[in-house]
Automatic annotation (TrEMBL):
The protein's name: Specific processing protease
A Pfam family assignment: Peptidase_M16_C
Encoding gene per record: mlpA
SUPFAM superfamilies: LuxS/MPP-like metallohydrolase
GO MF entry, a single one: metal ion binding
Amino acid sequence: MIKTTTLDNGITLVYEPLEFVKSVSIGIWIRNGSIDETPENNGISHFIEHMMFKGSAKRNAKEIADEMARIGGHINAFTAKEYTCYYAHTLDEHLETAIDVLSDMLTHPEFKEEEINKEKGVILEEIAMSEDAPEDIVHDQLENEVFKPSRLSMDILGTRENIRGFTREKLFEYLNCHYVAKNMVIAIAGAFNEKKVIKILNEAFKDTSTQATLTRNLDFSREATFIFKEKDIEQIHMVINFPSISYKDDAIFVLSVLNTIIGGGINSKLFMGIREDKGLTYSIYSYDESYEATGMFNIYAAFNPTQTDEVIVNTLKEIHTFLEEGIDEDDLDKIKEQIKCNLIIGYENMNNRMSNYGKAMLMQQHIKTQEEIVEAIDAVTIGAIMTMARDIFLDPSISLSIVGHLKDIDQERIKTLCKKLQYM
């Protein structure tokens, strides 16, 4: 049973004790990401995430790693556009140690200047690595342009200039404004004694700041955009982008079904039509990116530059055919079973379970149970799917991002092909 409570200092705790497992996952979720930054400090959320592992009042970086290794546990973190998460997965008998390590990192970071300077080099290398990955570039450059000038457009990694300029003072100034109790959710799933764990958490996080949270700026605008980046690689990497919905929209489960139909698996329209039937590309799929205020529906493909026009034309034809013909009840039932199967299998992993609870409570202040989600998926109708498909695919602000050799690509023709979807 999923339960929620509030720690003494105002941190929200969501937890699910389970008797059928021997492991436990815990995540510290902070409502802070690149959307909360400014152009002047863009990248600081991700930088702070790195620095949390570089030493605290009780442990240096090696001691943090060694202590988790000693208990056979796994500890890590990640930064997204709207949140940051620090998490650990271990055996139930070692949960108290994992809590001690995580809380020590987050409530008593040292941010030593020598460690800051070393980490600047690490993150500059991470930026360079991302610039060598066309799969990352093609998506990142799309978001950077589609969401300009809103804060959603900013890279999570930040800019080289900003990274080089971060100081201990700047890190603590930002940390003290964002890493506050009302901005945090602790999520736990697995084997543990709830009364004991709540007592431990109250003590472990007693030094977390209780000052007021900052208001997030959710203003955004979007325009149709076409971005072409020359890169010396063998394939073209492409993303076709359509406006979509927020994860707070009641139709989010309709979107999940639509995505699975279009490009979410080996029986999807795009995989069968573009790869299996025509052999135009090895990799093609769709995915949705939902944020608090908006969303994106994207189609990704990688292919030989000589097949650019053919891939785009046939991709848009597959969408147009779907808009005309729809889907029958038998195929819809198969899609629903596929989604429910993936969901239920995912919930057998404690880390997935914890992540679902933590993110939902942090961003939506509400958690749907596994049963409620299955019910919502079962309730999706053909009519709702087709209404959403028309809203998404016939929106005039269709955008496109391409990375690869451009010399044989007619950019104006590609723009025209994309814009024709509304009139096919």
